[in-house]
Write a structure and sequence with these properties.
The protein is α/β, with parallel strands linked by helices. The chain is built from ten helices and 13 strands. Helix 2 crosses helix 3 and helix 8 runs parallel beside helix 9. It starts with 6 loop residues before the first helix and ends in a 7-residue tail after the last strand. The relative contact order is 0.12.
């Protein structure tokens, strides 16, 4: 299976999330392609759990839980790459870094391949493997039982692990951001591990693409005003931007490369 989404597939996701449903015929007309091409797109997006195929069209999945790690890794990939390269510019050689779980933190770890002498601490195997590609980095991972899918360690062992150190920078993402600036997640243990990082770092970097603004999840995981810097590829909605401007957090808009 392909490891990226096409521009059309990404736009289909945005349209369906905005409207709740889109018919095959309307998508075919909008993108000037055949209905067979649209059905192939819909089938792939449905297999990834990003949308749900229904009679005559496609809709938002009924399950409000998080989608699979594999699907999240390729969703908004260009934005995540832009964020990762921007974050890398704020990290110096020899820094001590704490990474939470998540596809954007993993891509940030990949972007640090040329940094020298980093010390990386994480509760996620994907991040650890990405960090190990830099042969000058020292990588320490939390001990415990790995969770299927995300390949992470959660619970008291992960929280205790992060409380054992003082990090230069904590790097983490979230499932969503509510209109009042509340950071949201789908799992209490994920939120607790992130809070443990936040409490034990000198600077905190929140990395998230624009799709996280207004995305629904049910577990509180802090506030935008808690972090040092917020990295996003687009300017947030006005209500979110107002909250950031009134806080001490710095907003960094990460420039994406124009499509070829």
């Amino acid at each position: 299976m392909e490891t990226t989404l096409t521009i059309r597939q990404s736009e289909i996701i945005s349209l369906v999330r905005s409207n709740g449903f889109a018919s095959v015929d309307s998508l075919s007309d909008q993108f000037a392609v055949t209905t067979q091409t649209i059905r192939r797109d819909i089938n792939r997006l449905s297999e990834l759990g990003l949308l749900r195929r229904v009679h005559g069209g496609v809709e938002v999945p009924a399950n409000r839980g998080n989608i699979t790690y594999k699907a999240r890794k390729i969703l908004n990939l260009e934005a995540k790459n832009a964020i990762a390269h921007s974050v890398a510019e704020y990290i110096g050689d020899g820094a001590t870094l704490a990474f939470s779980i998540g596809t954007t933190p993993e891509i940030v770890a990949e972007a640090l391949e040329t940094h020298e002498g980093l010390k990386v601490f994480t509760n996620n195997m994907n991040v650890a493997i990405a960090a190990l590609r830099n042969t000058s980095s020292e990588v320490t991972i939390a001990g415990g039982r790995l969770r299927h899918g995300d390949l992470d360690v959660l619970g008291s062992s992960a929280e205790g692990f992060f409380r054992s150190y003082k990090f230069d920078i904590g790097i983490f993402g979230v499932a969503g951001v509510d209109s009042d600036g509340t950071l949201l997640d789908f799992n209490e243990d994920e939120a607790a591990a992130r809070q443990a990082i936040l409490a034990n770092c000198r600077q905190s970097f929140l990395v998230l693409d624009h799709s996280k603004f207004g995305r629904l999840a049910h577990v509180r995981a802090g506030f935008l005003s808690d972090v040092t810097r917020i990295f996003c590829e687009e300017t947030p909605p006005a209500s979110i931007l107002s909250i950031i401007e009134k806080s001490s957090a710095e907003l960094v808009i990460c420039k994406q490369e124009p499509p070829l």
